[in-house]
Amino acid sequence: MDLPVDEWKSYILQKWSLLPKSIQVTISTAEALSDIFLHSSLLLQPEDEMFLKRLSGGYLVGKDPGAPLFYREEGNKKFHEKDYMGATLLYSKGVAHSRPSTEDISLCYANRSAALFHLGQYETCLKDIVRAQSHGYPENLQPKMLLRKAECLVTLGRLQEASQTISDLESNFAATPTLAASQFQILQRTLCRLKRKVQEKETLTETFPALLTKALEDMELREENVHVRGASSSVSLRVDPLKGRSLVATKDILPGELLVKEDAFVSVLNPGEMPPRHEGLESKWDTRVTNGDLYCHRCLKPTLATVPCDGCSYAKYCSQECLQQAWDLYHSVECSLGGLLLTLGVFCHVALRSTLLARFEDVGKVRMTLCGETCNRDVSSPEGKNLAQALSYDLGGEREQRGKTVETSVPGCGIDGKYENNYNAVFHLLPHTENHSPEHKFLCALSVSALGRQLQAAGSQPFTAGLKSSKLEAAEAPVLYPEWNIWGVAMLRHMLQLQCNAQAITAIQQTGSKGSLITEHRQVRLATGLFPVVSLLNHSCSPNASVSFISTVATVRASQPIRKGQEVLHCYGPHESRMGVAERHQKLRSQYFFDCNCPPCEREKQRPSALEPRREAFCCHRCRALLQGDDVLSCGSTSCPASVRRHHLDSRLQDLQQQVGLARKLLRNCKAERAIQLLLGCQHDAESFLSAEHSVVGEIADDLAQAYAALGDWKKSASHLQKSLRVVEVRHGPSSVEMGHELFKLAQIFFNGLAIPEALNTIQRAEKVLLVHYGPWNDEIQELQKMKSCLMDSPAGKRSIELIIPTLLKHKSGCCELRWNHRHNSNCPGRTGTYGHPMLVWHFGHNMFK
């Protein structure tokens, strides 16, 4: 996903292995990215491009004239089965493949509006009705769609518009009686019902509930840093000779304080599972849903009713506004490259988009920065000296200018000393050129070269069209290489930067069976983005800050007290609660090229290597003391002679995990009773040889809680979930985000079980933890407040509890859909999506509040 597809990687690695040794040495020992790029790009042959073209041709990203009818018919099947969500997504695929201003696209929009109506998405339904009409929806089908429009308007309380639509319909019926008698009678009855509904509504005083969530723009920094755009005044930028740039506290910071709020400089939606088509398949049109069908490709907001690009079937947006912005900024160049970009991977796509966005900044500085990279190897020439001087002046380097000495500034800062979310800051993120393997650099360089050849073949001028040219004309920097080579070097730099600097933007998606009270959710990596300010944060295996995402915006909050002068740290993935020091060091060294010396690592280095952390330890089946040793484990109690071979316990643990996996499969298939029987046996077995804090013990308790909740046995569910919660607390800490989410689940269980005192207490505990990590405008916090308002004094008065109990009792299976996520052994996407710190979002739907 990040890097090119396996076929292209294997092809390039084989090509590398066949190169003469002298060429391998030249590329391997080159220090300048310009040398690596130029030497590699000269090796790209036409047959390589043909192979890549065949690979990219397997992705269906163009408009296919046969696809709209196929997807419309498949959507109709889902609609008749009352699977309106499935129907909506299939109609969206039909829309994506339709040409604008055709009957195909108008019919797909109209059908999607019907599915959206049944989903209660009335505003979005109205937008689709307008879209269908604007693309020439057939006149003879208009009445039924206009009735739907009137119904939406009535439901939304827009009665004047509804009355006008009804009036237009009556006029339409009188003027063009083209419908069959039976259809006409049905429509007339519906029309009469709507007219009565309007009259009834007009006699009522409509009240609409206040919004329970604040918009993203309301979540602002208390006081923005004058030197670091997007950071709080509570932190400052510092440069350390060993650790590089970092953020440090300028005052004592309390948990929960917002330290950074930054929109991504660039982000690219991860395509998800999009396997290329293969010849011989019965159908070339895929009905599976991917990230690209669920989220806007520009702002990453979730959307059911996507608006497609007019030129391709891949890019989809939440609105016409997002579509136009994406087209103006980058998609006009990317549109024809869809299959190639999917083949070359997300990192190559981010690299291209970064350089395309650079066009809209100070072009003189951008080109001099890029030229500086290509001529750094030859600053002895007069041109190189002049360019280096100009580059140094523009970027704040130490250089005498007109008799004045300019002080050396922090890399990435402008001449005014500010560090901003711009291309200059992105360019100065470290690429770690010397740490990447020669094969990896060769793969990236040839991928960029192939992309450039494709752009050149199309006659595209992507890096010069639409630029602000005032500084471009004034720039006197010599063009040492053709224009593309300059930008190719920049793209190679970005591809190498991304391994250490990209952030994985995550979202929660629903999985599991439909129609169940319990639906499982999983965290997915939604997109890859570059955040120059967030990238200033260094790593700790026990961080004092947490990073979360809303759409394309990253927020950093203090998760612990941070003293003045202390560095703000977050976790790149390997966390002390999830893996031992040896594994953490291996992962950090292989991906980020550094050895961690944070306090947890230093502490763990002092431990005897044979002693396992208690949370993953085996225990004695006789006395429950921890077992110690290497190949043969002995009881830690001096009075107990028990011993056992490690391989026997490892085998037993593996068998236990297989049984737990089987139980989960039963649970997903709505066979909760059988799952409980199997899990209770697993729990008994686990307690006989695993420590009470072992992750598997927590997993089994969590699974049992979910199974009992699926049956509506809230008391037993709460009992098992509390056991799971104790394991989470030991592994992650009482103030961790994982603990907050477990408390959130427990609050839901108590709420459904009418355990009012326990629910109120747990809600308070969950709020306290989650507020620190997410702030007050998070979905989970809003849901907790909804529950609390039902269980204690509210605008409805002190009778709220008396009123809520009969309401809850009507729902014998519970009053809310409980969305479940497992919190053990989390391995969520992180800084580059490989070993991330969990940044979790939970969504609970309370049916009684809707």
UniProtKB/TrEMBL annotation:
GO molecular function: histone deacetylase binding; protein-lysine N-methyltransferase activity; zinc ion binding
Record bears the keyword Nucleotide-binding: no
Subcellular location: Cytoplasm; Nucleus
Catalytic activity: L-lysyl-[protein] + S-adenosyl-L-methionine = N(6)-methyl-L-lysyl-[protein] + S-adenosyl-L-homocysteine + H(+)
Main location: cytoplasm
One Pfam family this sequence matches: zf-MYND
Domain MYND-type: 296-335
Domain SET: 233-573
Record keywords: Cytoplasm, Metal-binding, Methyltransferase, Nucleus, S-adenosyl-L-methionine, Transferase, Zinc, Zinc-finger
Stored InterPro entries: SET-MYND_domain_protein, SET_dom, SET_dom_sf, SMYD4_SET, TPR-like_helical_dom_sf, Znf_MYND
One cellular-component annotation, GO: cytoplasm
Function: Protein-lysine N-methyltransferase. Monomethylates PRMT5, modulating its transcriptional activity. May also act as a histone methyltransferase. Plays a critical role in cardiac development. Acts as a key epigenetic regulator of gene expression during cardiac development via its dual activities as a methyltransferase and negative regulator of HDAC1.
Protein name listed in UniProt: Protein-lysine N-methyltransferase SMYD4
Native source organism of the sequence: Sus scrofa (Pig)
